[in-house]
TrEMBL record:
UniProtKB keywords: Membrane, Sugar transport, Symport, Transmembrane, Transmembrane helix, Transport
SUPFAM superfamilies: MFS general substrate transporter
NCBIfam families for the chain: SP (TIGR00879)
GO cellular component term of the entry, any: membrane
Membrane topology term: Multi-pass membrane protein
Pfam families cross-referenced by the UniProt entry: Sugar_tr
Subcellular location: Membrane
Annotated transmembrane regions: 22-43, 81-99, 111-130, 136-158, 170-188, 200-222, 284-308, 320-342, 385-405, 426-447, 453-473
Signal peptide range in chain numbering: none
Presence of the UniProt keyword Transmembrane helix in the record: yes
Protein name (database record): Sugar carrier protein C-like
UniProt xrefs under Gene3D superfamilies: MFS general substrate transporter like domains
Domain Major facilitator superfamily (MFS) profile: 26-477
Length: 521
Protein backbone atom coordinates (compact mmCIF):
# COMPACT_ATOMS: atom_id res chain seq x y z
CA UNK A 1 0.00 0.00 0.00
CA UNK A 2 1.22 3.48 -0.82
CA UNK A 3 3.47 5.14 1.71
CA UNK A 4 2.38 2.86 4.53
CA UNK A 5 -0.96 4.62 4.91
CA UNK A 6 -3.80 2.93 6.66
CA UNK A 7 -6.94 1.89 4.93
CA UNK A 8 -9.85 3.91 6.16
CA UNK A 9 -13.53 3.89 5.40
CA UNK A 10 -14.48 6.41 8.07
CA UNK A 11 -15.93 9.87 7.63
CA UNK A 12 -13.86 12.65 6.05
CA UNK A 13 -11.89 14.86 8.42
CA UNK A 14 -13.12 18.33 9.26
CA UNK A 15 -10.06 20.59 8.96
CA UNK A 16 -10.34 24.09 10.42
CA UNK A 17 -11.13 26.75 7.85
CA UNK A 18 -8.98 29.81 7.71
CA UNK A 19 -8.70 31.92 4.63
CA UNK A 20 -5.25 33.50 4.52
CA UNK A 21 -4.71 36.62 2.46
CA UNK A 22 -2.06 34.65 0.56
CA UNK A 23 -4.62 32.12 -0.67
CA UNK A 24 -7.20 34.80 -1.32
CA UNK A 25 -4.76 36.76 -3.46
CA UNK A 26 -3.53 33.70 -5.38
CA UNK A 27 -7.11 32.60 -5.99
CA UNK A 28 -8.22 35.99 -7.29
CA UNK A 29 -5.25 36.12 -9.68
CA UNK A 30 -5.84 32.58 -10.95
CA UNK A 31 -9.58 33.14 -11.29
CA UNK A 32 -8.98 36.09 -13.62
CA UNK A 33 -8.26 33.42 -16.23
CA UNK A 34 -12.06 33.05 -16.35
CA UNK A 35 -12.16 36.46 -18.03
CA UNK A 36 -10.70 35.07 -21.26
CA UNK A 37 -13.22 32.23 -21.32
CA UNK A 38 -16.14 34.60 -20.69
CA UNK A 39 -14.96 37.33 -23.03
CA UNK A 40 -15.03 34.94 -25.88
CA UNK A 41 -18.46 33.57 -25.08
CA UNK A 42 -19.88 37.08 -25.00
CA UNK A 43 -18.08 38.65 -27.95
CA UNK A 44 -18.85 36.39 -30.92
CA UNK A 45 -22.64 36.79 -31.00
CA UNK A 46 -22.44 40.58 -31.13
CA UNK A 47 -19.65 40.67 -33.69
CA UNK A 48 -21.46 38.32 -36.05
CA UNK A 49 -24.47 40.61 -35.97
CA UNK A 50 -22.35 43.58 -37.20
CA UNK A 51 -22.89 44.27 -40.91
CA UNK A 52 -19.33 45.51 -41.50
CA UNK A 53 -17.87 42.28 -40.10
CA UNK A 54 -20.23 40.08 -42.10
CA UNK A 55 -19.69 41.90 -45.39
CA UNK A 56 -15.88 41.69 -45.01
CA UNK A 57 -15.48 38.06 -44.02
CA UNK A 58 -18.75 36.34 -44.86
CA UNK A 59 -20.14 38.27 -47.85
CA UNK A 60 -22.46 35.46 -48.93
CA UNK A 61 -24.07 35.32 -45.46
CA UNK A 62 -24.39 39.09 -45.52
CA UNK A 63 -26.09 39.08 -48.94
CA UNK A 64 -28.43 36.30 -47.89
CA UNK A 65 -29.44 38.13 -44.72
CA UNK A 66 -30.15 41.33 -46.67
CA UNK A 67 -32.05 39.55 -49.43
CA UNK A 68 -34.08 37.42 -47.06
CA UNK A 69 -37.53 38.96 -47.13
CA UNK A 70 -39.16 36.01 -45.36
CA UNK A 71 -41.48 36.98 -42.52
CA UNK A 72 -40.80 33.72 -40.68
CA UNK A 73 -38.90 35.01 -37.65
CA UNK A 74 -37.71 31.58 -36.55
CA UNK A 75 -35.54 31.10 -39.64
CA UNK A 76 -34.18 34.59 -40.19
CA UNK A 77 -30.58 33.92 -39.18
CA UNK A 78 -30.12 30.26 -40.03
CA UNK A 79 -26.57 29.97 -41.49
CA UNK A 80 -24.03 27.19 -41.07
CA UNK A 81 -21.05 29.37 -41.96
CA UNK A 82 -21.94 31.98 -39.39
CA UNK A 83 -22.41 29.35 -36.73
CA UNK A 84 -19.04 27.89 -37.67
CA UNK A 85 -17.31 31.16 -36.74
CA UNK A 86 -18.70 30.98 -33.22
CA UNK A 87 -18.27 27.28 -32.72
CA UNK A 88 -14.82 26.60 -34.29
CA UNK A 89 -13.05 27.86 -31.19
CA UNK A 90 -14.60 25.18 -29.06
CA UNK A 91 -13.19 22.39 -31.20
CA UNK A 92 -9.69 23.81 -30.71
CA UNK A 93 -10.30 24.08 -26.96
CA UNK A 94 -11.48 20.48 -26.84
CA UNK A 95 -8.27 19.15 -28.34
CA UNK A 96 -6.06 21.54 -26.36
CA UNK A 97 -7.48 20.43 -23.02
CA UNK A 98 -5.93 16.96 -23.51
CA UNK A 99 -2.47 18.46 -24.00
CA UNK A 100 -3.10 20.75 -21.05
CA UNK A 101 -3.64 17.69 -18.88
CA UNK A 102 -0.01 16.59 -19.28
CA UNK A 103 1.39 20.08 -18.76
CA UNK A 104 -0.73 20.54 -15.63
CA UNK A 105 0.40 17.22 -14.22
CA UNK A 106 4.07 17.29 -15.18
CA UNK A 107 5.00 20.96 -14.90
CA UNK A 108 2.41 22.26 -12.44
CA UNK A 109 -0.86 24.14 -12.72
CA UNK A 110 0.65 27.59 -13.19
CA UNK A 111 2.44 26.79 -16.45
CA UNK A 112 -0.79 25.64 -18.02
CA UNK A 113 -2.33 28.96 -17.04
CA UNK A 114 0.62 30.87 -18.46
CA UNK A 115 0.53 28.87 -21.70
CA UNK A 116 -3.20 29.45 -22.03
CA UNK A 117 -2.82 33.19 -21.44
CA UNK A 118 -0.06 33.73 -23.94
CA UNK A 119 -1.71 31.71 -26.72
CA UNK A 120 -4.92 33.62 -26.17
CA UNK A 121 -2.96 36.88 -26.40
CA UNK A 122 -1.54 36.00 -29.82
CA UNK A 123 -5.00 34.86 -30.97
CA UNK A 124 -6.51 38.19 -29.90
CA UNK A 125 -3.89 40.11 -31.87
CA UNK A 126 -4.45 38.02 -35.00
CA UNK A 127 -8.18 38.57 -34.77
CA UNK A 128 -7.98 42.29 -34.10
CA UNK A 129 -5.72 42.81 -37.14
CA UNK A 130 -7.40 40.18 -39.33
CA UNK A 131 -7.20 40.90 -43.05
CA UNK A 132 -8.77 37.72 -44.34
CA UNK A 133 -10.71 34.69 -43.19
CA UNK A 134 -7.48 32.72 -42.74
CA UNK A 135 -6.17 35.12 -40.10
CA UNK A 136 -9.55 35.11 -38.46
CA UNK A 137 -9.72 31.32 -38.23
CA UNK A 138 -6.10 30.99 -37.11
CA UNK A 139 -6.82 33.52 -34.40
CA UNK A 140 -9.91 31.58 -33.33
CA UNK A 141 -7.87 28.39 -33.05
CA UNK A 142 -5.29 30.09 -30.81
CA UNK A 143 -8.05 31.55 -28.65
CA UNK A 144 -9.50 28.07 -28.36
CA UNK A 145 -6.17 26.64 -27.23
CA UNK A 146 -6.02 29.37 -24.57
CA UNK A 147 -9.53 28.55 -23.37
CA UNK A 148 -8.70 24.83 -23.24
CA UNK A 149 -5.61 25.37 -21.08
CA UNK A 150 -7.29 27.88 -18.75
CA UNK A 151 -10.40 25.74 -18.25
CA UNK A 152 -8.30 22.66 -17.58
CA UNK A 153 -5.88 24.08 -15.04
CA UNK A 154 -7.58 26.92 -13.15
CA UNK A 155 -10.44 25.00 -11.48
CA UNK A 156 -7.92 22.40 -10.22
CA UNK A 157 -5.62 25.12 -8.95
CA UNK A 158 -8.42 26.82 -7.03
CA UNK A 159 -9.77 23.61 -5.54
CA UNK A 160 -6.31 22.58 -4.33
CA UNK A 161 -5.39 25.94 -2.84
CA UNK A 162 -8.63 26.35 -0.91
CA UNK A 163 -9.24 25.11 2.63
CA UNK A 164 -11.87 22.36 2.35
CA UNK A 165 -14.62 24.42 3.91
CA UNK A 166 -14.15 27.26 1.43
CA UNK A 167 -13.39 25.28 -1.66
CA UNK A 168 -16.75 26.00 -3.26
CA UNK A 169 -16.48 29.71 -2.66
CA UNK A 170 -12.95 30.06 -4.03
CA UNK A 171 -13.48 27.74 -6.97
CA UNK A 172 -16.55 29.71 -8.06
CA UNK A 173 -14.25 32.72 -8.44
CA UNK A 174 -13.44 31.19 -11.85
CA UNK A 175 -17.07 31.09 -12.95
CA UNK A 176 -17.58 34.58 -11.50
CA UNK A 177 -14.79 35.87 -13.75
CA UNK A 178 -16.36 34.05 -16.70
CA UNK A 179 -19.61 35.95 -16.10
CA UNK A 180 -17.73 39.26 -15.81
CA UNK A 181 -15.95 38.45 -19.08
CA UNK A 182 -19.29 37.81 -20.78
CA UNK A 183 -20.74 41.06 -19.43
CA UNK A 184 -17.68 43.08 -20.44
CA UNK A 185 -17.89 41.63 -23.93
CA UNK A 186 -21.60 42.52 -24.19
CA UNK A 187 -20.93 46.09 -23.10
CA UNK A 188 -18.00 46.44 -25.50
CA UNK A 189 -20.09 45.14 -28.40
CA UNK A 190 -22.80 47.60 -27.48
CA UNK A 191 -20.26 50.43 -27.71
CA UNK A 192 -18.33 49.30 -30.81
CA UNK A 193 -21.48 48.58 -32.82
CA UNK A 194 -22.08 52.32 -32.77
CA UNK A 195 -18.68 53.17 -34.30
CA UNK A 196 -19.05 54.53 -37.83
CA UNK A 197 -16.55 53.36 -40.40
CA UNK A 198 -17.05 49.64 -39.98
CA UNK A 199 -14.03 48.79 -37.81
CA UNK A 200 -15.79 48.48 -34.44
CA UNK A 201 -15.48 44.70 -34.62
CA UNK A 202 -11.67 45.05 -34.59
CA UNK A 203 -11.87 46.66 -31.17
CA UNK A 204 -14.26 43.99 -29.92
CA UNK A 205 -11.99 41.16 -31.02
CA UNK A 206 -8.69 42.90 -30.23
CA UNK A 207 -9.66 43.86 -26.68
CA UNK A 208 -9.50 40.18 -25.78
CA UNK A 209 -5.82 40.98 -25.33
CA UNK A 210 -6.61 42.78 -22.07
CA UNK A 211 -7.87 39.79 -20.06
CA UNK A 212 -5.21 37.64 -21.75
CA UNK A 213 -2.45 39.94 -20.49
CA UNK A 214 -3.87 39.85 -16.96
CA UNK A 215 -3.72 36.06 -16.63
CA UNK A 216 -0.43 35.76 -18.54
CA UNK A 217 1.38 38.15 -16.23
CA UNK A 218 -0.57 37.12 -13.13
CA UNK A 219 0.26 33.43 -13.54
CA UNK A 220 3.98 34.20 -13.38
CA UNK A 221 3.54 35.35 -9.79
CA UNK A 222 1.44 32.40 -8.68
CA UNK A 223 2.86 29.78 -6.33
CA UNK A 224 2.26 26.13 -7.17
CA UNK A 225 -0.23 24.14 -5.12
CA UNK A 226 1.20 21.82 -2.44
CA UNK A 227 -0.65 18.93 -4.10
CA UNK A 228 1.14 19.53 -7.39
CA UNK A 229 4.53 20.03 -5.66
CA UNK A 230 4.13 16.68 -3.93
CA UNK A 231 2.99 15.02 -7.13
CA UNK A 232 6.22 16.22 -8.76
CA UNK A 233 8.42 15.06 -5.88
CA UNK A 234 9.04 18.33 -4.03
CA UNK A 235 7.92 17.22 -0.58
CA UNK A 236 9.78 19.86 1.46
CA UNK A 237 8.59 22.73 -0.68
CA UNK A 238 5.09 21.37 -0.48
CA UNK A 239 5.19 21.36 3.31
CA UNK A 240 6.39 24.98 3.42
CA UNK A 241 3.73 25.98 0.92
CA UNK A 242 1.02 24.25 2.92
CA UNK A 243 2.08 26.10 6.09
CA UNK A 244 2.12 29.33 4.16
CA UNK A 245 -1.28 28.97 2.53
CA UNK A 246 -2.97 27.71 5.68
CA UNK A 247 -1.29 30.37 7.82
CA UNK A 248 -0.25 27.87 10.52
CA UNK A 249 2.34 25.18 11.22
CA UNK A 250 -0.40 22.84 12.31
CA UNK A 251 -0.81 21.22 8.92
CA UNK A 252 0.30 17.74 9.90
CA UNK A 253 -2.84 15.81 9.05
CA UNK A 254 -3.59 17.60 5.84
CA UNK A 255 0.02 17.16 4.77
CA UNK A 256 -0.17 13.43 5.33
CA UNK A 257 -3.31 13.33 3.18
CA UNK A 258 -1.36 15.00 0.39
CA UNK A 259 1.67 12.75 0.79
CA UNK A 260 -0.43 9.61 0.57
CA UNK A 261 -2.26 11.01 -2.46
CA UNK A 262 1.12 11.90 -3.99
CA UNK A 263 2.48 8.40 -3.39
CA UNK A 264 -0.49 6.85 -5.14
CA UNK A 265 -0.15 9.39 -7.95
CA UNK A 266 3.49 8.47 -8.51
CA UNK A 267 2.52 4.87 -9.07
CA UNK A 268 0.15 5.87 -11.83
CA UNK A 269 2.19 6.30 -14.98
CA UNK A 270 -0.72 6.37 -17.40
CA UNK A 271 -3.61 8.41 -15.97
CA UNK A 272 -5.62 7.99 -19.17
CA UNK A 273 -5.54 4.22 -18.95
CA UNK A 274 -6.10 4.29 -15.20
CA UNK A 275 -9.12 6.51 -15.28
CA UNK A 276 -11.00 3.70 -17.01
CA UNK A 277 -10.56 1.38 -14.02
CA UNK A 278 -13.70 0.29 -12.24
CA UNK A 279 -12.79 2.08 -9.01
CA UNK A 280 -12.88 5.46 -10.78
CA UNK A 281 -16.19 4.78 -12.54
CA UNK A 282 -18.29 7.07 -10.27
CA UNK A 283 -16.06 10.10 -10.85
CA UNK A 284 -15.63 9.32 -14.54
CA UNK A 285 -19.37 9.17 -15.10
CA UNK A 286 -19.88 12.42 -13.21
CA UNK A 287 -17.16 14.25 -15.11
CA UNK A 288 -18.83 13.28 -18.38
CA UNK A 289 -22.43 13.87 -17.34
CA UNK A 290 -22.01 17.15 -15.47
CA UNK A 291 -20.65 19.22 -18.41
CA UNK A 292 -22.96 17.41 -20.83
CA UNK A 293 -25.97 18.33 -18.74
CA UNK A 294 -24.70 21.87 -18.21
CA UNK A 295 -24.72 22.53 -21.92
CA UNK A 296 -28.10 20.83 -22.32
CA UNK A 297 -29.62 23.45 -20.00
CA UNK A 298 -29.57 25.54 -23.18
CA UNK A 299 -27.69 28.40 -21.47
CA UNK A 300 -25.49 29.14 -24.45
CA UNK A 301 -28.47 29.69 -26.66
CA UNK A 302 -28.92 32.78 -24.51
CA UNK A 303 -25.23 33.62 -24.09
CA UNK A 304 -24.29 33.37 -27.77
CA UNK A 305 -27.45 34.38 -29.47
CA UNK A 306 -29.39 36.65 -27.08
CA UNK A 307 -29.21 39.64 -29.46
CA UNK A 308 -30.35 37.46 -32.36
CA UNK A 309 -33.07 35.88 -30.24
CA UNK A 310 -34.37 39.26 -29.17
CA UNK A 311 -34.40 40.48 -32.76
CA UNK A 312 -36.43 37.38 -33.51
CA UNK A 313 -39.07 38.33 -30.98
CA UNK A 314 -39.31 41.79 -32.46
CA UNK A 315 -36.77 44.00 -30.65
CA UNK A 316 -34.78 46.59 -32.59
CA UNK A 317 -31.00 46.12 -32.89
CA UNK A 318 -30.25 48.51 -30.04
CA UNK A 319 -32.82 47.08 -27.66
CA UNK A 320 -31.54 43.59 -28.45
CA UNK A 321 -27.96 44.40 -27.49
CA UNK A 322 -29.21 46.24 -24.40
CA UNK A 323 -31.24 43.21 -23.29
CA UNK A 324 -28.12 41.09 -23.69
CA UNK A 325 -26.37 43.47 -21.29
CA UNK A 326 -29.21 43.12 -18.75
CA UNK A 327 -28.91 39.35 -18.94
CA UNK A 328 -25.16 39.64 -18.48
CA UNK A 329 -25.72 41.62 -15.28
CA UNK A 330 -28.17 39.07 -13.91
CA UNK A 331 -25.61 36.35 -14.66
CA UNK A 332 -22.90 38.14 -12.66
CA UNK A 333 -25.04 38.96 -9.62
CA UNK A 334 -26.69 35.56 -9.40
CA UNK A 335 -23.25 33.92 -9.46
CA UNK A 336 -22.38 35.88 -6.31
CA UNK A 337 -25.31 34.16 -4.59
CA UNK A 338 -23.65 30.80 -5.19
CA UNK A 339 -20.29 32.05 -3.88
CA UNK A 340 -21.85 32.67 -0.49
CA UNK A 341 -24.13 29.66 -0.31
CA UNK A 342 -22.23 26.78 -1.91
CA UNK A 343 -20.27 25.75 1.19
CA UNK A 344 -23.22 26.23 3.54
CA UNK A 345 -26.23 24.90 1.62
CA UNK A 346 -24.06 22.50 -0.34
CA UNK A 347 -23.88 21.60 -4.01
CA UNK A 348 -26.94 19.41 -4.17
CA UNK A 349 -29.45 21.97 -2.88
CA UNK A 350 -28.21 24.52 -5.40
CA UNK A 351 -28.46 21.98 -8.22
CA UNK A 352 -32.03 21.10 -7.29
CA UNK A 353 -33.27 24.63 -6.65
CA UNK A 354 -31.59 26.08 -9.75
CA UNK A 355 -32.84 23.21 -11.91
CA UNK A 356 -36.45 23.67 -10.81
CA UNK A 357 -36.29 27.41 -11.46
CA UNK A 358 -34.84 26.90 -14.94
CA UNK A 359 -37.46 24.31 -15.82
CA UNK A 360 -40.36 26.57 -14.78
CA UNK A 361 -38.94 29.46 -16.83
CA UNK A 362 -38.35 27.33 -19.92
CA UNK A 363 -41.98 26.21 -19.88
CA UNK A 364 -43.16 29.81 -19.47
CA UNK A 365 -40.88 31.28 -22.18
CA UNK A 366 -41.74 28.46 -24.63
CA UNK A 367 -45.44 29.03 -24.02
CA UNK A 368 -45.22 32.83 -24.32
CA UNK A 369 -43.47 32.43 -27.68
CA UNK A 370 -45.90 29.72 -28.79
CA UNK A 371 -48.90 31.93 -28.04
CA UNK A 372 -47.56 34.85 -30.08
CA UNK A 373 -45.63 33.19 -32.88
CA UNK A 374 -47.35 29.81 -33.16
CA UNK A 375 -45.70 27.61 -35.76
CA UNK A 376 -45.74 30.12 -38.58
CA UNK A 377 -43.20 32.34 -36.82
CA UNK A 378 -45.09 35.46 -37.82
CA UNK A 379 -46.06 38.05 -35.23
CA UNK A 380 -45.37 41.51 -33.96
CA UNK A 381 -45.49 41.29 -30.17
CA UNK A 382 -46.06 44.40 -28.08
CA UNK A 383 -43.21 45.83 -26.01
CA UNK A 384 -44.81 44.62 -22.80
CA UNK A 385 -45.10 41.12 -24.17
CA UNK A 386 -41.46 41.08 -25.26
CA UNK A 387 -40.43 42.50 -21.87
CA UNK A 388 -42.21 39.58 -20.18
CA UNK A 389 -40.17 37.16 -22.26
CA UNK A 390 -36.94 38.93 -21.30
CA UNK A 391 -37.96 38.89 -17.63
CA UNK A 392 -38.44 35.13 -17.56
CA UNK A 393 -35.22 34.60 -19.49
CA UNK A 394 -33.49 36.61 -16.73
CA UNK A 395 -35.01 34.41 -14.01
CA UNK A 396 -33.85 31.36 -15.97
CA UNK A 397 -30.31 32.76 -16.24
CA UNK A 398 -30.28 33.49 -12.48
CA UNK A 399 -31.23 29.86 -11.79
CA UNK A 400 -28.37 28.69 -13.99
CA UNK A 401 -25.89 31.15 -12.52
CA UNK A 402 -26.21 29.82 -8.98
CA UNK A 403 -26.39 26.16 -9.92
CA UNK A 404 -25.15 24.50 -13.11
CA UNK A 405 -22.96 27.47 -14.06
CA UNK A 406 -20.48 27.36 -11.17
CA UNK A 407 -21.05 23.76 -10.10
CA UNK A 408 -20.14 22.28 -13.47
CA UNK A 409 -16.55 23.33 -12.98
CA UNK A 410 -16.43 23.00 -9.20
CA UNK A 411 -17.71 19.44 -8.97
CA UNK A 412 -15.38 17.76 -11.50
CA UNK A 413 -12.38 19.58 -10.05
CA UNK A 414 -13.00 18.28 -6.52
CA UNK A 415 -14.21 14.69 -6.95
CA UNK A 416 -11.10 13.00 -8.36
CA UNK A 417 -8.14 11.60 -6.46
CA UNK A 418 -4.84 13.36 -7.24
CA UNK A 419 -3.49 10.65 -9.55
CA UNK A 420 -6.16 11.20 -12.19
CA UNK A 421 -7.42 14.69 -11.28
CA UNK A 422 -5.74 16.36 -14.21
CA UNK A 423 -7.00 13.77 -16.71
CA UNK A 424 -10.49 13.95 -15.21
CA UNK A 425 -10.59 17.71 -15.54
CA UNK A 426 -9.56 17.45 -19.20
CA UNK A 427 -12.48 15.15 -19.84
CA UNK A 428 -14.74 17.67 -18.14
CA UNK A 429 -13.45 20.53 -20.31
CA UNK A 430 -13.55 18.58 -23.54
CA UNK A 431 -17.10 17.32 -22.98
CA UNK A 432 -18.12 20.88 -22.12
CA UNK A 433 -16.43 22.22 -25.25
CA UNK A 434 -17.86 19.52 -27.48
CA UNK A 435 -21.42 20.24 -26.45
CA UNK A 436 -20.82 24.00 -26.47
CA UNK A 437 -19.73 23.46 -30.07
CA UNK A 438 -22.81 21.40 -30.90
CA UNK A 439 -25.18 23.97 -29.40
CA UNK A 440 -23.39 26.89 -31.03
CA UNK A 441 -23.44 25.10 -34.36
CA UNK A 442 -26.99 23.85 -34.21
CA UNK A 443 -29.03 26.46 -32.36
CA UNK A 444 -30.11 28.70 -35.23
CA UNK A 445 -31.04 25.67 -37.30
CA UNK A 446 -32.88 24.11 -34.36
CA UNK A 447 -34.82 27.32 -33.77
CA UNK A 448 -35.81 27.32 -37.43
CA UNK A 449 -37.13 23.76 -37.23
CA UNK A 450 -38.27 23.24 -33.64
CA UNK A 451 -39.56 26.79 -33.15
CA UNK A 452 -40.89 27.49 -29.65
CA UNK A 453 -40.58 23.74 -28.97
CA UNK A 454 -36.85 24.35 -28.55
CA UNK A 455 -37.51 25.77 -25.08
CA UNK A 456 -39.49 22.67 -24.12
CA UNK A 457 -36.67 20.53 -25.51
CA UNK A 458 -34.10 22.07 -23.17
CA UNK A 459 -36.70 22.04 -20.37
CA UNK A 460 -37.02 18.26 -20.71
CA UNK A 461 -33.25 17.94 -20.33
CA UNK A 462 -33.30 20.09 -17.21
CA UNK A 463 -35.90 17.76 -15.75
CA UNK A 464 -33.69 14.74 -16.51
CA UNK A 465 -30.53 16.29 -15.03
CA UNK A 466 -32.29 17.49 -11.89
CA UNK A 467 -33.59 13.99 -11.28
CA UNK A 468 -30.12 12.59 -11.95
CA UNK A 469 -28.59 14.88 -9.34
CA UNK A 470 -31.27 14.00 -6.77
CA UNK A 471 -30.58 10.28 -7.17
CA UNK A 472 -26.88 9.99 -7.97
CA UNK A 473 -25.02 13.01 -6.67
CA UNK A 474 -23.41 12.69 -3.21
CA UNK A 475 -22.88 15.96 -1.34
CA UNK A 476 -19.23 17.04 -1.45
CA UNK A 477 -19.27 20.26 0.56
CA UNK A 478 -16.57 20.70 3.25
CA UNK A 479 -14.89 17.36 2.45
CA UNK A 480 -11.06 17.61 2.24
CA UNK A 481 -10.10 17.10 -1.40
CA UNK A 482 -7.78 14.13 -0.81
CA UNK A 483 -10.44 12.36 1.27
CA UNK A 484 -13.21 12.60 -1.32
CA UNK A 485 -13.08 8.87 -1.96
CA UNK A 486 -14.90 8.36 1.35
CA UNK A 487 -17.92 10.20 0.00
CA UNK A 488 -18.14 7.89 -3.00
CA UNK A 489 -17.62 4.84 -0.87
CA UNK A 490 -20.50 5.87 1.40
CA UNK A 491 -22.96 6.41 -1.47
CA UNK A 492 -25.71 3.78 -1.86
CA UNK A 493 -25.06 3.30 -5.58
CA UNK A 494 -21.45 4.29 -6.24
CA UNK A 495 -20.07 2.56 -3.14
CA UNK A 496 -20.16 -0.82 -4.89
CA UNK A 497 -17.50 0.28 -7.39
CA UNK A 498 -14.86 0.89 -4.73
CA UNK A 499 -13.34 -1.93 -2.70
CA UNK A 500 -12.33 -1.19 0.91
CA UNK A 501 -8.66 -1.83 0.23
CA UNK A 502 -8.66 0.74 -2.57
CA UNK A 503 -9.10 3.59 -0.12
CA UNK A 504 -5.81 5.20 0.87
CA UNK A 505 -6.32 8.05 3.27
CA UNK A 506 -3.50 9.48 5.35
CA UNK A 507 -5.34 12.10 7.38
CA UNK A 508 -5.39 10.30 10.71
CA UNK A 509 -2.15 8.37 10.49
CA UNK A 510 0.75 9.32 12.69
CA UNK A 511 4.00 10.55 11.15
CA UNK A 512 5.64 7.53 12.68
CA UNK A 513 3.99 5.51 9.99
CA UNK A 514 6.88 6.35 7.74
CA UNK A 515 4.84 8.52 5.48
CA UNK A 516 6.66 11.67 6.46
CA UNK A 517 9.85 10.21 5.05
CA UNK A 518 8.14 9.45 1.78
CA UNK A 519 6.88 12.99 1.51
CA UNK A 520 9.98 14.93 2.40
CA UNK A 521 12.53 13.16 0.29
C1 LIG B 1 -20.47 27.53 -19.17
C2 LIG B 1 -20.54 28.33 -20.41
C3 LIG B 1 -21.60 29.40 -20.24
C4 LIG B 1 -21.34 30.24 -19.01
C5 LIG B 1 -22.42 31.24 -18.76
C6 LIG B 1 -20.18 28.43 -18.01
O1 LIG B 1 -20.13 27.68 -16.84
O2 LIG B 1 -19.50 26.50 -19.30
O3 LIG B 1 -20.81 27.50 -21.49
O4 LIG B 1 -21.65 30.23 -21.36
O5 LIG B 1 -21.19 29.40 -17.88
O6 LIG B 1 -22.17 32.03 -17.64
Amino acid sequence: MAGGAIVSTGAPKDYPAKLTSFVLFASVVAATGGLIVGYDIGISGGVTSMDSFLSKFFPSVYRKEKENQSTNQYCKFDSQVLQMFTSSLYLAALIASFFASSVTRMFGRKWSMFGGGITFLVGAALNGFAQDVLMLILGRILLGIGVGFAGQSIPIYLSEMAPARMRGMLNIGFQFMITIGILAANLINYGTSKINGGWGWRISLGLAAVPASIITLGSLFLPDTPNSLIERGHGDEAMCMLCRIRGTNDIHEEYIDLVVAGEVAKLVKHPWRNILKRKYRPQLIMTIFVPFFQQLTGINVIMFYAPVLFKTIGFGGNASLMSAVIIGLVNVFATIVSIFTVDKLGRQKLFLQGGSQMLACQIIVGTLIAIKFGTSGEANPSRTYAAFVVFFICVYVAGFAWSWGPLASLVPSEIFPLEIRSAGQSINVSVNMFFTFIIAQAFLTMLCHMKFGLFYFFGAWVLIMTTFVAVFFPETKNVPIEEMILVWKAHWFWGRFIADEEIHIGGRVEMANGISKAGSK
